[in-house]
């Protein structure tokens, strides 16, 4: 369902609401141990010289609900042109029903195939909301583009089977900037910065492997200081660059 409003020639507002229901959503199973299955299934594992396996299977039913609100404004200014855009998105995905184990998987518990951590991957690993503001200013040969992104809170979890722990990460603002100068109609010099405030996700408190020190050899806070899986803006901090493009 969507609506578009144009209160003025240089202002546009859009509103979109959606609901997506998926039956028997395809998931990647947890590791299945052949010894936990019936004799027929164990023989299949034995023939393949395997002790464990993972499968893509039809899993639970899910429902995704969301709302998109976008406002665009191009004000009249005395120097150049200016376009602005403000966008907000809210999306929530929930598991609405469990699934039935059939065939060779019959007899396993659902937790053996689909753990609480697997549920978190669907329901909580992504921020439920995001706010974005974009600006595009152009004057003669100059173009300045900037955007601010606010990512909502999200969850990361680690572990195996029923033994897992989770960590709540707070919302964060990320600023990006682009400056272009057209030397000629076919030559453009660009400077840019991503995450210019050098924002990092919260330190990993649940799966930072092998932290410690050995005198005169190593002093390490751990291998994974930041979650490898869930940070929506990465964990490399600020990135700056420059380019020169020539069109032939």
Automatic annotation (TrEMBL):
GO cellular component: cell outer membrane
Alphabetized Gene3D superfamilies for the sequence: TonB-dependent receptor, beta-barrel domain
A Pfam family it matches: TonB_dep_Rec_b-barrel
Domain TonB-dependent receptor-like beta-barrel: 2-196
Swiss-Prot/TrEMBL keywords: Cell outer membrane, Membrane
Superkingdom in the source lineage: Bacteria
Annotated localization: Cell outer membrane
PANTHER family: PTHR47234, SECRETIN_TONB SHORT N-TERMINAL DOMAIN-CONTAINING PROTEIN
Protein name as annotated: TonB-dependent receptor-like beta-barrel domain-containing protein
Taxonomic lineage from the root: Bacteria, Pseudomonadati, Pseudomonadota, Alphaproteobacteria, PS1 clade
């Amino acid at each position: 369902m969507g609506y578009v409003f144009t209160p003025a020639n240089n202002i546009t507002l859009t509103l979109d609401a959606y609901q997506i229901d998926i039956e028997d959503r395809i998931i990647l199973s947890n590791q299945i141990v052949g010894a936990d299955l019936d004799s027929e299934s164990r023989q299949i594992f034995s023939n393949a010289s395997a002790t464990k396996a993972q499968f893509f299977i039809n899993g639970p039913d899910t429902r995704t609900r969301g709302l998109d609100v976008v406002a665009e404004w191009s004000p009249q200014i005395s120097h150049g042109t200016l376009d602005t855009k403000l966008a907000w998105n809210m999306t929530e995905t929930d598991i609405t029903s469990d699934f039935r184990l059939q065939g060779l998987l019959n007899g396993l518990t659902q937790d053996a195939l689909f753990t609480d951590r697997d549920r978190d991957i669907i329901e909580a690993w992504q921020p439920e909301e995001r706010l974005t503001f974009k600006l595009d200013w152009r004057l003669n040969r100059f173009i300045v583009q900037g955007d601010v992104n606010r990512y909502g809170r999200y969850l990361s979890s680690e572990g195996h089977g029923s033994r897992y722990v989770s960590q709540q990460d707070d919302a964060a603002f990320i600023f990006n900037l682009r400056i272009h100068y057209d030397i000629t109609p076919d030559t453009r010099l660009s400077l840019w910065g991503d995450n210019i405030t050098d924002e990092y996700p919260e330190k990993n408190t649940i799966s930072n492997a092998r932290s410690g020190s050995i005198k005169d050899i190593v002093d390490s806070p751990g291998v994974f200081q930041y979650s490898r899986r869930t940070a929506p803006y990465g964990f490399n901090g600020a990135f700056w660059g420059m380019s020169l493009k020539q069109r032939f």
